UniProtKB/TrEMBL annotation:
This is ABC transporter ATP-binding protein. Residues 17-252 form the ABC transporter domain. Probably part of an ABC transporter complex. Responsible for energy coupling to the transport system. Part of an ABC transporter complex. Responsible for energy coupling to the transport system. Keywords: ATP-binding, Cell membrane, Membrane, Nucleotide-binding, Translocase, Transport. It comes from Streptomyces tirandamycinicus.
Amino acid sequence: MSGSVDASGGGGAVPLVELAGAGFSYPDGPPVLRGVDFAVPAGRSLALLGRNGSGKTTLMRLLSGGLRCGEGRLLLDGEPVGHGRAGLTRLRTTVQLVVQDPDDQLFAASVGQDVSFGPMNLGLPEPEVRARVAEALDALDISALEDRPTHLLSYGQRKRAAIAGAVAMRPRVLILDEPTAGLDPHGQERLLAVLERLRESGTTVVMATHDVDLALRWADDAAVLSPAGLRTGPVAELLADRELLDAARLRRPWAMAAEEVLRAHGLLEAGRPGPRTPEELDRWAVPA
């Protein structure tokens, strides 16, 4: 359960999507989230971290409109989101959630049909739907799979097909629940390259993950859920906070330990960021 909240937004700019004083409880259950203030600013990559049961999935579903706040408000571009048809359509063309298991999302006979479902539901003309499908398949590097039955895809291909369905909606915010879970190292790197291209094209990406090393390497900002509440801020700052990590039952990133050793031996100057990947660590470990 979340309690008091220490959250930060994106400077003076109006966040793309925001929860203000949000709370939620499932029927006959205790509060999962309470008094949450959480802002997603444009142009940033954000890692959402926390132990199992901390409320990450609930938070993502509140942001995407899959759940309705029991208290507080959901804001889009600073304006409250209505839960009528017009309000939810506006939200879902701006914010898209991709769930962890692609089999919970894929349902159509072929990849192309599945990716086209969202745009078709918007009532777009057929040429626009075809253009969006082609664009999304290309962005996820799965154009060759357009006519393939979804049940014949590998797990990594199913992950990318599910993301393509969300990308076809051209959202400004893409929320991903554990997108690298179940992927081998090569599959993870391919997916991260796709996310980087989406970021470069202007999509704000929020990723829920248990992988603190991935969060430190990939994200600009982090949001950490613990029994004390939600804290947000620069990813390196939050993942250096041992008390916060202990409360959230997260381990310390290996890169933080490496940075500490490098500084202790005078190999990393004050103010200079430490390595975030093994390749970056080689710059210090291997003599020039």
